[in-house]
Amino acid sequence: MNNVHKAGFVNIVGNPNVGKSTLMNQLVGERISIATFKAQTTRHRIMGIVNTPEMQIVFSDTPGVLKPNYKLQESMLAFSESALQDADILLYVTDVVENPEKNMDFLEKVQRMEIPVILLINKIDESDQKTLGDIVEKWHTLLPKAEILPISAKNKFGTDILLKRIQELLPESPAYFDKDQLTDKPARFFVSEIIREKILLYYDKEIPYSVEVVVERFKETDRHIHINTVIYVERDSQKGIIIGHQGVALKKVSTEARKALEKFFDKPIYLEVFVKVDKDWRSSDRELSHFGYNLD
Fold first, then answer.
1. How far apart are alpha carbons 57 and 162 in whole angstroms?
2. CB-CB contact of 47 with 59 (8 Å)
3. 84, 90 in Cβ contact below 8 A?
4. Could you give phi then psi for residue 156, rounded to 5 degrees?
């Protein structure tokens, strides 16, 4: 009988909006990363863990790689670049519409990597055979050492093959985390992510990117969970938009978030949401550190 145990870190990188979070949710089987149609949804590195008796895969979903315009984005890019340092296997996600040469600085770093790189061409359901062939050819010249696998994360096409391949490439190692653990993030992290997801879906334009959600209280009993959160915005005008006329907008977001949280935690939730102004938090090292963006 073969008693070898395999374990390793599989980091998911790529440009914004190519489907990294959707892919991670399919691979881990839980809604670990929030996935919406707006860019920059994932601001932190989020780990999701897949366990079987013979292996443990620690997936890490990173923010989309983008040229930083302000401090928050610098921090997000640093998270993505740190994913290149500690991976056993790298999944580079692209899709059928993205220009392969969109972010050459980052690609050059990937080219120099010694670990296995699997290039995933996502959303193949939105393409045809010939176009896909051309895309594969192009990527083959850009990342000659990478294995290329066409997938559709949304339709779960190719994800089983990918998991099997990851298992083959994983190094022999004992588990890094408890076998019943799904993620390295605490419960309150998911509360703020789920509320932020609802804000991304419900408000237009710049508002979601000027928002941070902080969980001030998370008290769980056998019967329910009581949560107090604060939505921080940068300006008074944004506070007005978040709350909406007679509080309608905030009530809708709170209700949607509460439903999603009840599904996530499988318990009744009492959710209180407040809105506060914290001017220019995205450009302040101190505030970014307070919101968990420091890398030290």
1. 12
2. yes
3. yes
4. 60, 25
